[in-house]
């Protein structure tokens, strides 16, 4: 009896492996990189969470020479996300409750936070996890500034209650906005980002959840927001991106 049960289990495992291999061989994702890649784009809203695409255009799923648009594929197939994941490799599991990042021809981030967020992000193979991902309110806004001056900042800093706080990789930066004044801000925890004098950058901000009254001024924005992305730009004048702080 034990031998029969073991044989059935082994056959089941082999069937899953063979099926998975066939799916990988027959499954192909095609897409074009979005030229102006700034934020996730809502693809579908489902009962258990939203599905976003990031930096993708004209995304199609091809199975055995039959092509379907990504949106239609997910709408018509309740197991679509698991099938896509089956063609990718698990790269990382985050300590936020179990969010998983899969990599392959594309990147798929499957949120599973302690707050109950179940959103999914599908992007190109260079997509990285950003701080506004897997949050119920993931709105961010972009402002464009030129760096007029930058230097390392090493002085002790304090919070609003006068308590000393420690940050890493802090900089004192003079920034100018098109048709605006030049202001000096302290940018903390600027890891993996290099700012250079006389270059212009698009800063992507997410407003901290506990902030209720924030002025639309450079100093207030940097003090009360989290930087989720910085990208150099060659846009000038009115071509520069200056988005509203709140989603209207």
Radius of gyration: 23 Å
The CATH topology of the largest domain:
OB fold (Dihydrolipoamide Acetyltransferase, E2P)
Poorly predicted regions are 15-22
CATH architecture of the largest domain: Beta Barrel
Structural class: alpha+beta
Give me the count of strands: 16
Helix content: 10-25%
User: What string gives the helices and strands in order?
Assistant: HEEEEEHHEEEEEEEEEEHE
Q: What is the CATH class of the largest domain?
A: Mainly Beta
Count of distinct structural domains: 2
Please state how the strands of the largest beta sheet are arranged side by side: 2-3-9-8-7-6
**Silhouette:** globular
Mean pLDDT: 85
- Quaternary state of this entry equals single chain
> Termini, distance in Å?
66 Å
Brief overview:
This protein is an alpha+beta fold. The protein is 18% helix and 38% strand.
Describe what you observe in this structure.
The longest helix is centred in the N-terminal third of the chain and has 25 residues, at 2-26. The chain has four helices and 16 strands. The strands form four sheets. A six-stranded mixed β-sheet has the order 2-3-9-8-7-6, with no helix packed on it. It is globular and about 60 Å long. It is an alpha+beta fold and 248 residues long. It folds into two domains: 31-124, no CATH class; 141-239, Beta Barrel (OB fold (Dihydrolipoamide Acetyltransferase, E2P)). Mean pLDDT is 85; it is low at 15-22.
């Amino acid at each position: 009896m034990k031998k029969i049960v073991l044989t059935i289990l082994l056959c089941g495992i082999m069937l899953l492996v063979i099926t998975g291999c066939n799916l990988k061989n027959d499954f192909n994702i095609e897409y074009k990189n979005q030229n102006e890649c700034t934020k996730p784009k809502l693809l579908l809203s489902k009962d258990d969470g939203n599905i976003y695409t990031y930096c993708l255009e004209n995304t199609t799923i091809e199975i055995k020479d039959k092509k379907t648009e990504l949106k239609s594929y997910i709408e018509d197939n309740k197991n679509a996300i698991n099938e896509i994941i089956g063609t990718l490799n698990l790269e990382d599991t985050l300590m936020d409750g179990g969010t998983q990042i899969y990599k392959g021809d594309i990147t798929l981030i499957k949120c599973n936070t302690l707050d109950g967020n179940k959103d999914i992000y599908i992007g190109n193979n260079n997509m990285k996890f950003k701080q506004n991902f897997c949050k119920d309110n993931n709105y961010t806004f972009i402002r464009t500034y030129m760096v007029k001056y930058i230097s390392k900042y090493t002085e002790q800093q304090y919070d609003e209650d006068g308590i000393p706080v420690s940050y890493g990789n802090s900089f004192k930066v003079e920034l100018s906005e098109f048709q605006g004044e030049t202001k000096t801000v302290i940018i903390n925890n600027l890891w993996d980002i290099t700012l250079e004098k006389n270059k212009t950058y698009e800063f992507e901000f997410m407003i901290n959840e506990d902030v209720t009254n924030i002025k639309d001024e450079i100093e207030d924005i940097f003090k009360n927001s989290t930087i989720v992305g910085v990208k150099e730009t060659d846009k000038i004048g009115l071509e520069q991106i200056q988005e509203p702080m709140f989603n209207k």
